Amino acid sequence: MDCNFVNISDLNQYIYCPRRLYYLMFYNTQGINYYLVDGRSKHAHQSRRGGWYREMYLRSDKLHLHGRIDLLEGKTTLTPVERKHGSSYYDNDEIQLAAYCMLLEDYLDEPVRMGYIYLFGTNERYAITITDWHREKVLEITEAIRKMNLYTIPDFASNPNKCKKCSVVQYCMPYETRLLEARK
Ligand code: SF4
What we know:
Blueprint: E1 6-7, H1 8-16, H2 18-26, H3 34-47, E2 56-60, E3 65-69, E4 71-73, E5 79-84, H4 91-108, E6 114-119, E7 124-129, H5 132-146, H6 161-164, H7 169-172, H8 174-183
Parallel strand pairs: 1-3, 5-6
Antiparallel strand pairs: 2-3, 4-5, 6-7
The structure holds iron/sulfur cluster.
Iron/sulfur cluster (SF4) binds at residues 17, 19-20, 156-157, 162-163, 166, 168-169, 172, 174.
């Protein structure tokens, strides 16, 4: 697939499980499960709080990325804020935030060296310094997503616990496949 522009939210999906992104991309399986519904409703509610909500859609030819930054903080120095519905955050959330920082950096043509992750679950905000490691990961994963194609299905997630919360589990069928493989 010649995927010129990768949606930044897909980086997070890919890190969670490349196979999940495969189904979302090629089979239009926008399955809705509890975890997605819960996250979306909190997002919508939070977005109506007055005063600190501004969104900005950006696209970068150089990075092959596009995405909507939900919230930007600051008047002279803009800092992206990525909001999550849990009580903790992970590397994939940091990488997603880094991608927004890089997108903003490209748009402003000036360095964006940090962003925030805000957790609905704890009402806490964490300052994240964007390192070379984050930047390299963003570029590496963007490239991997651009190379994805219909005929190459990624492996199952190495951690089966991820499947319990996955909205495409009914298409992917990890349990059934493992059962059949065990019987061979
Ligand atoms: S069910 Fe598991 S292996 Fe399949 S896409 Fe979801 S997380 Fe990946």
